[in-house]
Design brief:
The chain is α+β, with helices and mostly antiparallel strands. It has nine helices and eleven strands. It has an eight-stranded mixed beta sheet. It has a three-stranded antiparallel beta sheet with strand order 6-7-8, covered by helices on one side.
Length: 358
Amino acid sequence: MADKTPFDAKLDRLVARHAELSAAMADPARTGEFAKLAKEYSELTPLVEGITALRQAEAERQSLEELAGGGDAEMKKLAEVELDTVKRRLPILEEQVKTLLLPKDEADEKNAILEVRAGTGGEEAALFAAELFRMYQRYAVLKGWRVELLELSETGLGGLKEGIASISGRGVFARLKFESGVHRVQRVPATEGSGRIHTSAATVAVLPEAEEVDVKIDDKDLRIDVFRSSGPGGQSVNTTDSAVRITHIPTGLVVSQQDEKSQHKNKAKAMKVLRARLYERERQAREAERAASRKSQVGTGDRSERIRTYNFPQGRVTDHRINLTLYKIAQVMEGEALDEFVDALLAEDRAAKLAEAE
Protein backbone atom coordinates (compact mmCIF):
# COMPACT_ATOMS: atom_id res chain seq x y z
CA MET A 1 0.00 0.00 0.00
CA ALA A 2 1.34 3.45 -0.96
CA ASP A 3 2.44 5.84 1.77
CA LYS A 4 -0.17 8.40 2.78
CA THR A 5 0.24 11.96 1.53
CA PRO A 6 0.70 14.76 4.13
CA PHE A 7 -2.85 15.87 3.23
CA ASP A 8 -4.30 12.41 4.00
CA ALA A 9 -2.27 12.18 7.22
CA LYS A 10 -3.68 15.55 8.31
CA LEU A 11 -7.24 14.34 7.62
CA ASP A 12 -6.54 11.19 9.69
CA ARG A 13 -5.44 13.34 12.64
CA LEU A 14 -8.60 15.47 12.44
CA VAL A 15 -10.90 12.41 12.33
CA ALA A 16 -9.02 10.91 15.31
CA ARG A 17 -9.33 14.21 17.24
CA HIS A 18 -13.09 14.30 16.55
CA ALA A 19 -13.48 10.75 17.97
CA GLU A 20 -11.30 11.68 20.94
CA LEU A 21 -13.50 14.71 21.70
CA SER A 22 -16.65 12.57 21.46
CA ALA A 23 -15.24 10.18 24.06
CA ALA A 24 -14.07 13.02 26.31
CA MET A 25 -17.53 14.63 26.29
CA ALA A 26 -19.03 11.36 27.54
CA ASP A 27 -16.43 11.08 30.35
CA PRO A 28 -17.98 12.09 33.74
CA ALA A 29 -14.53 13.05 35.01
CA ARG A 30 -14.35 15.84 32.38
CA THR A 31 -17.74 17.47 33.01
CA GLY A 32 -16.07 20.78 33.84
CA GLU A 33 -14.53 20.90 30.35
CA PHE A 34 -17.75 20.01 28.53
CA ALA A 35 -18.45 23.46 27.03
CA LYS A 36 -14.92 23.79 25.68
CA LEU A 37 -14.87 20.22 24.31
CA ALA A 38 -18.35 20.61 22.76
CA LYS A 39 -17.30 23.82 21.00
CA GLU A 40 -14.27 22.18 19.38
CA TYR A 41 -16.35 19.08 18.54
CA SER A 42 -19.08 21.10 16.80
CA GLU A 43 -16.47 23.11 14.86
CA LEU A 44 -14.82 19.90 13.63
CA THR A 45 -18.06 18.04 12.80
CA PRO A 46 -18.74 19.60 9.33
CA LEU A 47 -15.11 18.95 8.36
CA VAL A 48 -15.22 15.30 9.50
CA GLU A 49 -18.50 14.82 7.62
CA GLY A 50 -16.77 16.20 4.50
CA ILE A 51 -13.76 13.90 5.01
CA THR A 52 -16.11 10.90 5.41
CA ALA A 53 -17.92 11.74 2.15
CA LEU A 54 -14.59 12.18 0.34
CA ARG A 55 -13.21 8.85 1.60
CA GLN A 56 -16.39 7.00 0.73
CA ALA A 57 -16.16 8.35 -2.82
CA GLU A 58 -12.46 7.36 -3.01
CA ALA A 59 -13.33 3.81 -1.86
CA GLU A 60 -16.15 3.70 -4.39
CA ARG A 61 -13.77 4.75 -7.18
CA GLN A 62 -11.28 2.03 -6.23
CA SER A 63 -14.02 -0.62 -6.20
CA LEU A 64 -15.40 0.53 -9.58
CA GLU A 65 -11.91 0.58 -11.13
CA GLU A 66 -11.51 -3.07 -10.13
CA LEU A 67 -14.90 -3.94 -11.65
CA ALA A 68 -14.12 -1.99 -14.82
CA GLY A 69 -10.93 -4.00 -15.20
CA GLY A 70 -12.72 -7.35 -14.87
CA GLY A 71 -13.71 -9.83 -17.56
CA ASP A 72 -17.51 -9.43 -17.43
CA ALA A 73 -18.34 -7.09 -20.37
CA GLU A 74 -21.75 -6.01 -19.08
CA MET A 75 -20.44 -5.35 -15.56
CA LYS A 76 -17.47 -3.50 -17.04
CA LYS A 77 -19.76 -1.16 -19.01
CA LEU A 78 -21.92 -0.37 -15.96
CA ALA A 79 -18.83 0.20 -13.79
CA GLU A 80 -17.32 2.60 -16.34
CA VAL A 81 -20.48 4.75 -16.36
CA GLU A 82 -20.57 4.93 -12.55
CA LEU A 83 -16.81 5.49 -12.40
CA ASP A 84 -17.15 8.55 -14.63
CA THR A 85 -19.75 10.01 -12.22
CA VAL A 86 -17.57 9.36 -9.16
CA LYS A 87 -14.49 10.85 -10.84
CA ARG A 88 -16.43 14.06 -11.54
CA ARG A 89 -17.65 14.20 -7.92
CA LEU A 90 -14.24 13.65 -6.26
CA PRO A 91 -12.63 17.06 -7.06
CA ILE A 92 -15.76 18.81 -5.76
CA LEU A 93 -15.64 16.87 -2.48
CA GLU A 94 -11.91 17.49 -2.15
CA GLU A 95 -12.34 21.24 -2.67
CA GLN A 96 -15.12 21.31 -0.05
CA VAL A 97 -12.77 19.67 2.47
CA LYS A 98 -9.94 22.07 1.59
CA THR A 99 -12.31 25.03 2.01
CA LEU A 100 -13.33 23.77 5.46
CA LEU A 101 -9.63 23.44 6.33
CA LEU A 102 -8.92 27.10 5.57
CA PRO A 103 -8.12 29.17 8.66
CA LYS A 104 -11.22 30.96 9.90
CA ASP A 105 -11.23 34.73 10.30
CA GLU A 106 -11.83 34.98 14.04
CA ALA A 107 -13.77 38.20 13.51
CA ASP A 108 -16.29 36.74 11.02
CA GLU A 109 -18.93 35.94 13.64
CA LYS A 110 -18.60 39.31 15.36
CA ASN A 111 -20.98 42.23 15.13
CA ALA A 112 -19.71 45.23 13.17
CA ILE A 113 -19.24 48.96 13.44
CA LEU A 114 -20.17 50.61 10.13
CA GLU A 115 -18.70 54.02 9.33
CA VAL A 116 -19.75 55.98 6.22
CA ARG A 117 -18.23 59.38 5.41
CA ALA A 118 -18.60 61.85 2.56
CA GLY A 119 -15.44 62.07 0.44
CA THR A 120 -14.60 64.25 -2.55
CA GLY A 121 -17.52 66.07 -4.18
CA GLY A 122 -19.06 68.53 -1.71
CA GLU A 123 -22.80 68.32 -1.05
CA GLU A 124 -23.30 65.65 -3.75
CA ALA A 125 -20.78 63.40 -1.92
CA ALA A 126 -22.69 63.99 1.33
CA LEU A 127 -26.00 63.06 -0.35
CA PHE A 128 -24.43 59.87 -1.72
CA ALA A 129 -22.97 59.03 1.72
CA ALA A 130 -26.51 59.33 3.16
CA GLU A 131 -27.86 56.97 0.46
CA LEU A 132 -25.10 54.42 1.14
CA PHE A 133 -25.78 54.57 4.87
CA ARG A 134 -29.50 53.91 4.19
CA MET A 135 -28.56 51.07 1.80
CA TYR A 136 -26.68 49.26 4.57
CA GLN A 137 -29.52 49.90 7.03
CA ARG A 138 -32.01 48.33 4.58
CA TYR A 139 -29.67 45.41 3.92
CA ALA A 140 -29.38 44.83 7.69
CA VAL A 141 -33.18 44.78 8.03
CA LEU A 142 -33.46 42.23 5.19
CA LYS A 143 -30.91 40.05 7.02
CA GLY A 144 -32.78 40.32 10.32
CA TRP A 145 -29.89 42.22 11.93
CA ARG A 146 -30.23 44.97 14.53
CA VAL A 147 -28.95 48.48 13.78
CA GLU A 148 -28.05 50.97 16.50
CA LEU A 149 -27.11 54.49 15.40
CA LEU A 150 -24.01 55.73 17.19
CA GLU A 151 -23.24 59.00 15.38
CA LEU A 152 -25.04 60.97 12.69
CA SER A 153 -23.51 64.20 11.41
CA GLU A 154 -25.85 65.63 8.78
CA THR A 155 -25.40 68.57 6.43
CA GLY A 156 -28.89 70.03 6.82
CA LEU A 157 -29.63 69.45 3.11
CA GLY A 158 -30.27 65.73 3.43
CA GLY A 159 -26.60 64.83 3.14
CA LEU A 160 -24.36 63.03 5.60
CA LYS A 161 -20.89 64.14 6.63
CA GLU A 162 -20.46 61.05 8.83
CA GLY A 163 -22.66 58.18 9.93
CA ILE A 164 -21.63 55.46 12.40
CA ALA A 165 -23.78 52.49 13.39
CA SER A 166 -23.43 49.26 15.33
CA ILE A 167 -24.87 46.28 13.43
CA SER A 168 -25.50 43.08 15.37
CA GLY A 169 -26.66 39.66 14.26
CA ARG A 170 -25.35 36.38 12.91
CA GLY A 171 -22.23 36.59 10.72
CA VAL A 172 -22.49 40.38 10.30
CA PHE A 173 -18.76 41.10 9.89
CA ALA A 174 -18.24 38.13 7.54
CA ARG A 175 -20.80 39.53 5.08
CA LEU A 176 -19.91 43.22 5.38
CA LYS A 177 -16.11 43.21 5.65
CA PHE A 178 -15.50 43.59 1.91
CA GLU A 179 -17.60 46.78 1.81
CA SER A 180 -14.66 48.76 3.24
CA GLY A 181 -13.17 51.21 0.77
CA VAL A 182 -14.07 54.09 -1.53
CA HIS A 183 -17.48 54.01 -3.23
CA ARG A 184 -17.77 56.30 -6.26
CA VAL A 185 -20.98 57.74 -7.72
CA GLN A 186 -21.55 59.12 -11.23
CA ARG A 187 -24.78 61.05 -11.86
CA VAL A 188 -26.33 64.44 -12.59
CA PRO A 189 -26.82 66.21 -9.23
CA ALA A 190 -30.26 67.69 -8.52
CA THR A 191 -28.59 71.11 -8.29
CA GLU A 192 -26.95 70.78 -11.73
CA GLY A 193 -28.87 72.80 -14.32
CA SER A 194 -26.83 71.88 -17.40
CA GLY A 195 -27.33 68.11 -17.04
CA ARG A 196 -23.60 67.46 -16.63
CA ILE A 197 -22.62 64.19 -14.92
CA HIS A 198 -20.57 64.67 -11.75
CA THR A 199 -18.33 62.13 -10.02
CA SER A 200 -18.26 62.10 -6.21
CA ALA A 201 -17.13 59.63 -3.56
CA ALA A 202 -17.86 58.34 -0.07
CA THR A 203 -15.75 56.10 2.16
CA VAL A 204 -16.99 53.04 4.01
CA ALA A 205 -15.23 51.32 6.90
CA VAL A 206 -16.50 48.10 8.46
CA LEU A 207 -14.82 47.17 11.74
CA PRO A 208 -15.41 44.04 13.85
CA GLU A 209 -17.05 45.06 17.12
CA ALA A 210 -14.73 44.17 19.97
CA GLU A 211 -15.69 42.89 23.40
CA GLU A 212 -13.84 44.08 26.49
CA VAL A 213 -11.99 40.75 26.58
CA ASP A 214 -10.71 41.37 23.03
CA VAL A 215 -9.04 44.70 23.76
CA LYS A 216 -7.44 45.83 27.01
CA ILE A 217 -7.76 49.60 27.46
CA ASP A 218 -6.08 51.18 30.47
CA ASP A 219 -7.83 54.20 31.99
CA LYS A 220 -4.46 55.97 32.20
CA ASP A 221 -4.23 55.80 28.38
CA LEU A 222 -7.44 57.79 27.95
CA ARG A 223 -8.09 61.51 27.96
CA ILE A 224 -11.80 62.24 28.32
CA ASP A 225 -13.15 65.70 27.55
CA VAL A 226 -16.77 66.76 27.98
CA PHE A 227 -18.41 69.63 26.12
CA ARG A 228 -21.80 70.99 25.17
CA SER A 229 -23.55 69.22 22.28
CA SER A 230 -24.34 71.25 19.19
CA GLY A 231 -26.55 70.59 16.20
CA PRO A 232 -26.05 71.51 12.53
CA GLY A 233 -24.62 75.00 12.08
CA GLY A 234 -23.66 75.31 15.72
CA GLN A 235 -27.25 75.24 16.94
CA SER A 236 -27.30 74.26 20.61
CA VAL A 237 -29.17 71.03 21.27
CA ASN A 238 -28.20 70.62 24.89
CA THR A 239 -27.67 72.94 27.81
CA THR A 240 -25.40 70.60 29.74
CA ASP A 241 -21.91 69.25 29.05
CA SER A 242 -23.14 65.83 27.88
CA ALA A 243 -21.03 65.38 24.73
CA VAL A 244 -17.89 63.28 25.17
CA ARG A 245 -14.57 63.21 23.33
CA ILE A 246 -12.21 60.31 24.14
CA THR A 247 -8.58 60.39 23.04
CA HIS A 248 -6.55 57.16 23.18
CA ILE A 249 -3.15 58.66 23.98
CA PRO A 250 -0.86 55.80 22.76
CA THR A 251 -2.44 55.68 19.28
CA GLY A 252 -3.84 59.19 18.94
CA LEU A 253 -7.29 57.81 18.04
CA VAL A 254 -10.09 60.26 18.86
CA VAL A 255 -13.79 59.40 19.15
CA SER A 256 -16.57 61.92 19.84
CA GLN A 257 -20.19 61.20 20.74
CA GLN A 258 -23.00 63.71 21.29
CA ASP A 259 -26.20 61.96 20.11
CA GLU A 260 -27.45 61.14 23.61
CA LYS A 261 -28.56 63.61 26.29
CA SER A 262 -26.75 61.52 28.89
CA GLN A 263 -22.98 61.93 29.27
CA HIS A 264 -22.81 58.33 30.52
CA LYS A 265 -24.52 56.98 27.38
CA ASN A 266 -22.32 59.07 25.08
CA LYS A 267 -19.22 57.76 26.85
CA ALA A 268 -20.42 54.14 26.48
CA LYS A 269 -21.04 54.61 22.74
CA ALA A 270 -17.67 56.31 22.25
CA MET A 271 -15.89 53.45 24.06
CA LYS A 272 -17.66 50.93 21.79
CA VAL A 273 -16.33 52.71 18.67
CA LEU A 274 -12.86 53.18 20.16
CA ARG A 275 -12.65 49.50 21.16
CA ALA A 276 -13.64 48.45 17.61
CA ARG A 277 -11.00 50.72 16.05
CA LEU A 278 -8.26 49.45 18.37
CA TYR A 279 -9.28 45.83 17.76
CA GLU A 280 -9.13 46.37 14.01
CA ARG A 281 -5.63 47.83 14.32
CA GLU A 282 -4.44 44.78 16.26
CA ARG A 283 -6.23 42.44 13.86
CA GLN A 284 -4.65 44.00 10.79
CA ALA A 285 -1.22 43.74 12.39
CA ARG A 286 -1.78 40.01 13.04
CA GLU A 287 -3.17 39.07 9.66
CA ALA A 288 -0.97 39.38 6.61
CA GLU A 289 -3.85 39.72 4.16
CA ARG A 290 -5.19 42.71 6.08
CA ALA A 291 -1.90 44.16 7.24
CA ALA A 292 -2.58 47.63 5.82
CA SER A 293 -3.55 50.37 8.24
CA ARG A 294 -7.12 51.48 8.63
CA LYS A 295 -6.35 54.58 6.58
CA SER A 296 -5.17 52.58 3.58
CA GLN A 297 -8.13 50.21 3.93
CA VAL A 298 -10.57 53.06 3.63
CA GLY A 299 -8.51 55.35 1.41
CA THR A 300 -8.62 59.13 1.36
CA GLY A 301 -12.03 59.55 -0.26
CA ASP A 302 -10.46 60.69 -3.51
CA ARG A 303 -12.48 59.94 -6.67
CA SER A 304 -9.64 58.00 -8.32
CA GLU A 305 -9.47 55.37 -5.56
CA ARG A 306 -12.49 53.12 -5.64
CA ILE A 307 -13.73 49.62 -4.99
CA ARG A 308 -17.17 50.17 -6.53
CA THR A 309 -18.80 52.64 -8.92
CA TYR A 310 -22.52 53.48 -8.94
CA ASN A 311 -23.44 54.92 -12.36
CA PHE A 312 -27.00 56.23 -12.16
CA PRO A 313 -27.49 57.36 -15.81
CA GLN A 314 -26.63 53.84 -17.01
CA GLY A 315 -28.34 52.09 -14.08
CA ARG A 316 -25.26 50.01 -13.30
CA VAL A 317 -23.07 49.20 -10.32
CA THR A 318 -19.55 47.83 -10.91
CA ASP A 319 -17.28 46.21 -8.33
CA HIS A 320 -13.78 46.80 -9.67
CA ARG A 321 -12.09 44.13 -7.52
CA ILE A 322 -13.93 41.27 -9.20
CA ASN A 323 -15.04 43.02 -12.43
CA LEU A 324 -18.70 42.34 -11.66
CA THR A 325 -21.32 44.71 -13.10
CA LEU A 326 -25.02 44.58 -12.21
CA TYR A 327 -27.57 46.60 -14.19
CA LYS A 328 -29.91 46.91 -11.21
CA ILE A 329 -28.86 50.03 -9.35
CA ALA A 330 -32.28 50.56 -7.72
CA GLN A 331 -32.25 47.05 -6.20
CA VAL A 332 -28.66 47.53 -4.99
CA MET A 333 -29.48 50.86 -3.31
CA GLU A 334 -32.50 49.19 -1.65
CA GLY A 335 -30.14 46.55 -0.24
CA GLU A 336 -31.99 43.81 -2.14
CA ALA A 337 -29.25 43.00 -4.69
CA LEU A 338 -26.26 43.66 -2.42
CA ASP A 339 -25.94 39.92 -1.71
CA GLU A 340 -24.90 39.35 -5.33
CA PHE A 341 -21.75 41.41 -4.72
CA VAL A 342 -21.22 39.98 -1.22
CA ASP A 343 -21.49 36.35 -2.38
CA ALA A 344 -19.15 36.95 -5.35
CA LEU A 345 -16.55 38.67 -3.13
CA LEU A 346 -16.68 35.85 -0.58
CA ALA A 347 -16.25 33.26 -3.36
CA GLU A 348 -13.29 35.18 -4.79
CA ASP A 349 -11.68 35.40 -1.35
CA ARG A 350 -12.17 31.67 -0.78
CA ALA A 351 -10.66 30.83 -4.19
CA ALA A 352 -7.63 33.04 -3.50
CA LYS A 353 -7.06 31.38 -0.11
CA LEU A 354 -7.38 27.91 -1.66
CA ALA A 355 -4.80 28.87 -4.30
CA GLU A 356 -2.41 30.06 -1.56
CA ALA A 357 -2.93 26.81 0.38
CA GLU A 358 -1.91 24.61 -2.58
